[in-house]
Amino acid sequence: MSGTNHGGQPPPHTLRIRFGLMAAKGALAALALAGGLALAMWAYAETLGPLDLSRANDGSVTVTDRDERLLRAFTTPDGRWRLPVTTAEVDPRFVSMLTAYEDRRFRSHPGVDWRAALRAAWQAARSGRVVSGGSTLTMQVARLLEPREERTLAAKLRQAVRAVQLERRFSKDQILDLYFALAPYGGNIEGLRAASLAYFGKEPKRLTSAEAALLVGLPQSPETRRPDRLPGAARAARDRVLERAARFGALGRPEATLALAEPVPTARRPVPMLAPHAAEAALRADPARRIHRLTVEARLQAALEGLARERAEALGPRLSVAVLVVDNATGEVRAHVGAADYLSTERAGAIDMANAVRSPGSALKPFIYALAFETGLAHPETILDDRPSRFGLYSPENFDLSYQGAVTARRALQLSLNVPAVELLNDVGAARFLARLRQAGADVVVPKEAAPGLAVGLGGLGIRLTDLVRLYAGLARGGEAPALVWRADQPPTGEPGRRVAEPLSSWYVFDILRGAPPPQNAPAGRIAYKTGTSYGYRDAWAVGFDKRVTIGVWVGRPDGAAVPGLIGRQAAAPILFDAFARLGGEPEPIAAPRDALFATSATLPPPLRRLRHDAPRTQAAAANAPLKIAFPPDGARVDLGLAAAPGEATLALKALGGVPPLTWMVNGRPVGEPEARRQGTWKPDGAGFARVSVMDAAGATDSVVVRLE
């Protein structure tokens, strides 16, 4: 018969057709099965709903320094440490060891490693127990995102579906980011960064091979392998990771051998807590932000916190120390120590004393002198009288109850003599002095029940260390007090600096304070600094600056109780000088302005040689009208003339009233000789702002500020 051979078998071509049809039917069946499975998986995935990534996003709020080093972290609402970290911030060796140990085909599978899953199922069927796991890192991420207690086939199926969804949505590195953020490491530690800090006190980028191996092995059974409770089990897990990493080439055999010899940690380390007060202030200002980056420098902050703690313990119980460091050029806060010990209840460490209102003692005297220099009342070499004096009912005394007699303004400020400072304040006016401080941005607090009196010059007001440092930074910047900048993750507010003094008077104060006698065993002439001691020995202050930075120190009890013997020079000044030493580098002096007047008391113009006492300084003699500058008017813009060559244009000066002869000054520097006439001229050296002052023979003064164009 046709279609069969002699043996009764179909011919070869017929067999080929039959086999082809069978194969086609098998392929169609496989396709149908695969399609059915795909549809079933799709339908099942639809019942699961969208991926919930809220747990990955619900991490610890962190505060970092200017270079993104961790300053402080806060636990999540459920009390867990879960710090953000990305794959780029992890040592590549750790990633290699992790994939070699947990998921060798991580970079190639679509979320589920079917080869590993089939192998695990076959091994389990043969042995009757679980020999190896089939979960991929992506499946582990799925389980971490949706934690479930059961370990059933349905739970595995759910993880597999979620893993495929994750792979479709995220890159491999992004999936690793999720794993590094959520993996458990024992107790309330979640995530690689929290574990690295808790067990080794370092960031994941700096782990050794042994340390990395321990953290690779912990998440499989975090509670039974915790090194702080079960170091033996932790070591065994670490050693298995090292052996497997060496076997699969993720680690060299010699390096693995050395790592096996390293000990494992046996205790948890505290999470960093630097600049705690600044960190809390950042959270209050922007509670929705997850990562806050401050202008603080972590290394300097740690050094100064250690210094504050050490000095407070040496000074006595219940005392605290606050330190603030400001970059003069930018106004950025480089260190903010709000208390000697944040966790100490005895020292009230939770109170930020850098922002507490306290009496500054003599720390504001430099600004009295700056105002006197600026208005032409005095020069650093002007002779002042330091002798018993009375101003109405107020009779100031020096701190040591002694008097120096005739002293220069330079010496009076360097020795912090009270009587000369009050004498100058009486001339410039207490209200004017306070207005200048407030104009510069300082929030000074004075008693409400009375008008400000001369006592404000010796500490009869309240001010914060932050404001005091800002004012001194203004002296370092030529009289322009900067707005303090606390955050590096936000653009500066653009708030312009506010003037606390004129450039020349600022430099005069710097030059004087640089010559102040330093504390015992400290070098002289390196920084300009001033101390202060409040009434009743409640507050000790020291503020110093050079061209680069300004540092302020406060010492006292947060409750405001008196501490007998607490003196700024003895308690705060040594901390200030040590803070500058820990800052590093040599202090930079501030260059003298071109119009600085270098003279002795004898060679000064006559009105500046000695502070006059033979006539009132706020008005002229009765036979003359009050002294007043008639031209240029205050705030005027003066066009010097486009045709005039530099240095040839002249500005006419005219005064009314007063007792001749009159002395004209620009920015504190005399212009020519005293004139019997009430007119004068000045040749400006360029455009800009200038303070024009005039003083008569009776010591009365008047000043205006003009803009030259």
Task: Offer a few descriptive terms.
transmembrane helix, alpha+beta, multifunctional enzyme, 709 residues, protease, Immunoglobulin-like, carboxypeptidase, Penicillin binding protein transpeptidase fold
Write a short abstract of this structure.
The chain is an alpha+beta fold. The longest helix is centred in the first third of the chain and has 37 residues, at 12-48.
Could you explain how this protein is built, in words?
With about 700 residues, the protein is an alpha+beta fold. Among the domains are: about 15-50; about 80-260, Orthogonal Bundle (Penicillin binding protein transpeptidase fold); about 615-709, Immunoglobulin-like (Sandwich). It has a five-stranded antiparallel β-sheet, sandwiched between helices. A five-stranded mixed β-sheet has the order 16-22-21-18-19, with no helix packed on it. The chain has a three-stranded mixed β-sheet with strand order 2-1-5, with helices on one face. A hairpin with a 2-residue loop joins strand 18 and strand 19 (about 670). Helix 10 packs antiparallel against helix 11 and helix 14 crosses helix 19 (about 505-515). The chain is elongated and about 140 Å long. Its EC number is 2.4.99.28.
